[in-house]
Amino acid sequence: QDPTQQRRHKLVAGIGEQELVAVAALKGESYEVKRTAWAKNELGEKQLVERMRKVRAWFFEQDGGWYVQCKYGNRTLMLGKGNAVFVKSLNDVSGALVALKAAAEAGELDDAIGAAAQKKKSK
Hints:
Structural class: alpha+beta
Strand content: 25-35%
Number of strands: 7
Oligomer: single chain
Radius of gyration: 17 Å
Number of helices: 3
Largest sheet: 3 strands, antiparallel
Strand order of the largest sheet: 3-4-7
C-alpha cells in the first residue's frame, strides 16, 4: 500500500479511538484498552499477560472551552494557522473529531501528516 494511504489510515484509526475517549469523558470515565505484554512470573519465567492502558485524550479544557488537537504518533499536526480547534463544550468535541476524521479520509491532512512523519525520521 502507498505510504500516504498507510499514514492516513493510521490517523483515521487514532481519531476513531479519540471518539471513544470523548464518549467516556462525557460519562466522567477514563477510556482504557487492553494490551498484551511479556512479564516475568514468580518463577522468573516469561509469560504473556494482558494489561489495561489508559488512552490519553487529544482534547483539553482551557479559556472557557475545549481545544481539540489532531496527533500523528506523539506529534501534534498543524491545522491551518494553529495546532488545535476550539469548541465551546465537551459535547462539541465529538463533532470536531468527526470533522477531523472526514478531512483525514478526504486527504486534506496528508501534507500535515507528511511533515510530522518527516520530523520523526530526522531524529
